[in-house]
Amino acid sequence: MADINQYIAGGFNADEAEAEAPKGGGNVPDGEYYFIVSDEKVETSKDNEYVKNGQIRLCLTFEIKADTQNDTSYSGRKAFNDFWILHEDPKTLGRSKGYLGQLIIAIFGKGYLLQDSKDLLKKDPFIAQLKTKKGKNGKDYQNMVKVRSVADWQANPTPAAAAAPTQAAAAPAAPAQNATPRA
């Protein structure tokens, strides 16, 4: 039996470790959130066994900044989405490019030509709706649906989101409703 003191001076204090444990996990409640793109990578068959020869996939990591009522309870939580840049199935490729196009418009506005995926990193926030769906295997999966620019959302807020303030938005010290959070 190994002495833990040789690895951790003074032993392992579970009470201290519990206080340092990351909070969160599981699904974020369905709703609309401010997001930024926090990481990106392009994958080919050399990088990932699930990407077949001739396919190219853009993998993006999104970070929640706040919900649309400025509740920051889920700030820092991540969402992930992959977009096919090359794929042999025209339907799959069309859906993926359409969704990526909506994301680019939400971040940069119409008419922007994305030439480097790193341009997506740490730009202004955009609004996306998270929705939980059951997968074929019975697991819950969260998808980003309906991606919008902050300006579009402020001009035309989703009725359900505008009508249902969160606890943090109702608190006196909360930031002004619909204010864009800073990255």
Top keywords for this entry?
single chain; 183 residues; alpha+beta; five-stranded antiparallel β-sheet; disordered C terminus
Short structural description:
The protein is α+β, with helices and mostly antiparallel strands.
Computed over alpha carbons, the radius of gyration is 20 Å
Q: Count the strands?
A: 5
Based on secondary structure, the structural category is alpha+beta
How would you spell out the order of helices and strands? HEEEHEEHHH
Structure annotation, total helices: 5
Question: Strand order, biggest sheet?
Answer: 3-2-1-4-5
**Residue runs with pLDDT of under 50 for 5 or more positions:** 18-22, 162-183
Instruction: Please state the overall shape, judged from the principal axes of the Cα atoms.
Output: globular
Beta content comes to: 25-35%
Mean pLDDT: 76
Major sheet details: 5 strands, antiparallel
- Level of helix content? 10-25%
Query: Span from first to last CA?
Result: 48 Å
Description:
The chain has a five-stranded antiparallel sheet. Strand 4 and strand 5 (140-149) form a beta hairpin. The protein has helices at residues 14-20, 90-108, 150-155, 159-163, 167-170, and strands spanning 31-43, 56-67, 78-86, 126-134, 140-149. The chain is built from five helices and five strands; from the N terminus they run αβββαββααα. The protein is of the alpha+beta class and 183 residues long.
